[in-house]
Amino acid sequence: MVPTSRFEGIAAFVETAEAGSFTAAAERLGLTRSAVGKSIARLEARLGARLFHRTTRSLSLTDEGVRFRESCLRALAELDGAEASLAERSGEPAGRLRIEIPVLFGRQWILPLLLELSARHPRLELDIGFSNRVADLTAEGIDLGVRIGALDDASGLVARRLGTQTTQLCAAPAYLERAGRPQKIEDLAGHACIFERRRGGQSGWRLTDREGATRVVAVSSRLALDRSDAVADAVISGHGIGCLPGWLVGQALRAGTLETVLPDISSDALPIHALWPAQRPLPLKLRVVVDALVGRFLPVAPWDEAG
């Protein structure tokens, strides 16, 4: 018989490697920080190897820790697959599914769906991360990702289109009554524009005019914010014109809280995809989530639905 303490040590190690600290791992596991630290210390003693570099301010994996983590993830995936395959015989999705989704879009439009699925399928375990980075799904052991933008690094992945992110110029009616409504792109120069500042990005809006010509329109603004939800808050409050994704402002536009500016001027349209590492057959737990995403976002995006 394999001692259960060995599995406990591995669980503590994997969670600590994922979370980056004993404290965060303890919160995930429902243990004390001391219990997690002692469990990993016993594991290191049993293996005869140091798995973490420890300082008073940081925790990082050693080379041995990196290799051991990869082996543990493979073994845990095998165990999870064994459990899920038995559950699938009854048609019930089961097992752990690690998902990574964009921060704002994910919280507003994907998390509610995932919570519904979690309640509907009690044997389905969801580990949900929020990030706007381009993750290496295969290398990081992520089962499913949602990405907004071009798929330049999708080798070895399967992609399912969920929709399109369109971006719209908009402002509060009170601002437009006060400052006037722009009639052409050039009129934006005389308005208060609220810019979303992106690291390493362009300091302007990429717009396409009536003739189909695309250009980056320089934006002069007293407000430059690095979150699109903060830009939306400022726009709704009447501080100026913003260029925002439809999934963020669609409801406000329908409610009349915001008004479209230059409706025949378009901005970049970016594809939205669900992505997962190629595998056959597709596990039921993954298929259930992908099917739910497709059903929620197609054929009409929920932010474009009336009501």
From TrEMBL:
GO molecular function, one term: sequence-specific DNA binding
GO BP term, example: DNA-templated transcription
InterPro entries found in the cross-reference section: LysR-type_TF_proteobact-type, LysR_HTH_N, LysR_subst-bd, WH-like_DNA-bd_sf, WH_DNA-bd_sf
Organism superkingdom: Bacteria
Pfam family, one: HTH_1
Keywords: DNA-binding, Transcription, Transcription regulation
The keyword DNA-binding is annotated on this UniProt entry: yes
Residue ranges of every copy of the HTH lysR-type domain listed in the record: 12-62
Family: Belongs to the LysR transcriptional regulatory family.
Protein name as catalogued: LysR family transcriptional regulator
Protein species of origin: Kaistia nematophila
